[in-house]
Amino acid sequence: MIFISEEEDLRMIEEHNQKSVEELVENFSYVYVYFADGRSIRISKEKKFEFKDNKFYIYDKDIEVNIVDIELIEFTD
Question: First and final CA of the chain: distance in angstroms?
């Protein structure tokens, strides 16, 4: 049986969320990201965002959240 620590579990969630957002923004016109606190944001290729130090920064909207607080990601063309 394999046991995963809570720290390892959070790291895997962070990696998944980051990769999902980056790939979807690259391939679709709009990506909608919903956060645990109820906020949401629409991201396109023109938006300036970054993943750094376990945080998700969206610069033109002055948003900073923990990567693990991304709850849902939707996309559309």
Answer: 42
